[in-house]
Amino acid sequence: MIATLLFYAFAAVLTVAALGVVTSKNPVHAAFFLVLAFFQSALLWLLIDAEFLAIVLVLVYVGAVMVLFLFVVMMLDINVEQLRQGYTRYLPLGVVVAGVVILEIVHVIWYRSQGLPILSVPTSHGPDYSNTKELGAVLYTEHVFAFEIAAVLLLLAIVAAITLTMRKRPGLKVQNIAEQVAVRSADRIRVVKVDAVTDAKD
């Protein structure tokens, strides 16, 4: 009973956070809503005894991916007003995608009401059971190639983000190392002689 109440509470907060991600006008606020959504998803993982996946979701996505996302948002200096001008063009596609997602959720709820064994509650394991060991045994044997491809894609995303921040744009301040090394003190310092000013009483 308590697990069911916790599930609905976490799911409600997760839904609100997800709506905040797609409806927030400020990209930084949207990123914070996404952090909240990740935390709620991690709590849902804990309810089904997947502690390793929960902690990885917090450490990797919240601690690394979201920091990179905020870095890209800050460095790219996105013109939000310009992006809003073409909002209505993508509205039909967004409605279609939202309809597909809602249809999938309805199907999942309907399948759960049928009592199928594939959607049953996972059985609890003993204290000696290790999620990390079991996940590693599957990840590095059956899905090792997909794991390596995902790592390469993340590396390409990091390189692309850095490349985008180095683009030429007005007002960008860059360093010229050659000019800094070749500078002379005579070009930077000018000695000015000032006559001493004495007090009128003296």
How would you describe this protein?
The protein is an all-alpha fold and about 200 residues long. It has a domain at about 125-165. Helices cover about 70% and strands about 0% of the residues. About 5% of the residues are buried.
Summarize the SSE layout with pairings:
Blueprint: H1 2-23, H2 27-47, H3 51-76, H4 80-84, H5 91-113, H6 131-139, H7 144-165, H8 177-181, H9 185-188
Helix pairs in contact: 1-2, 2-3, 3-7
Distinctive features:
single chain, 202 residues, mainly alpha, elongated
What is the gist of this entry?
The protein is mostly helical. The chain is 68% helix and 0% strand.
- DSSP helix count? 9
The main pleated sheet reads as: none
Indicate the low-confidence ranges by residue numbers: none
Spatial extent as radius of gyration: 28 Å
Mean pLDDT: 80
The level of helicity is 55-70%
Helix/strand order: HHHHHHHHH
**Shape descriptor:** elongated
Helix vs. strand class: mainly alpha
Number of strands: 0
Distance linking N and C termini: 94 Å
What percent strand? under 5%
